[in-house]
Amino acid sequence: MNNQPxxxxxxxxxxxxxxxxxxxxxxxxxxxxxxxxxxxxxxxLRWLINENTQYAHIARAEIERRGASLTADKxxxxxxxxxxxxxxxxxxxxxETALDINEGLFSWLERVAAEAYxxxxxxxxxxxxxxxxxxxxxxxxxPVLKTVMPAPRIHYRQxxxxxxxxxxxxxxxxxxxxxxxxxxxxxYLVESKNPGRGEVQQMIDIVRGDFPDKRLVASVPLNDTxxxxxxxxxxxxxxx
Length: 240
What we know:
By secondary structure, this protein is α/β, with parallel strands linked by helices. The protein has seven helices and ten strands. Strands 5-6-7-8-9-10 form a six-stranded mixed beta sheet.
């Protein structure tokens, strides 16, 4: 018998939600195997639902029996992997952006991850915020931060070319010239020694992050890969 619950969309033979009497039910898997469902911590019951496991309906019934809330007190859950990565790779950012000297790594990560999640697109599971890339799992009840990593640094400088005010951006060997108007962004030049999907994705992220919900006008033809990414992100574009 499996020791861990499976993630599944299949219907169990058990009755749903409030029709289940959890008083005499015994957990048959995992670290609480052999315990009564009535003694399982709320956090674990919520996890079973959030992960959409095959026992989610029993967990939901037990939470309803207790009269407790389905949602946890916090708006986001941090995975152990995300905490480990933050402690190894984001210590400097933590110290620089902590609210005060008493804000520990866990509290800091929970706060910034929740704020970053408000900026995520509906069809995506990651976002770059405050020079950090956050990767989430969108659960049934609340999001789970799966991992974090430093975002690639983008170097900008202002330039004046042919009488136009431009922003030049440098990223991993990619060079861009951006000109902006009140409601548009124009990509005047994009060059890369080794163009590839990963670099194209990051170039679009530069534009998306600095100029959200704008119309893009490219003075050079866009290739199919770039068009695909624009379409996926819902960005309106024009090219020659």
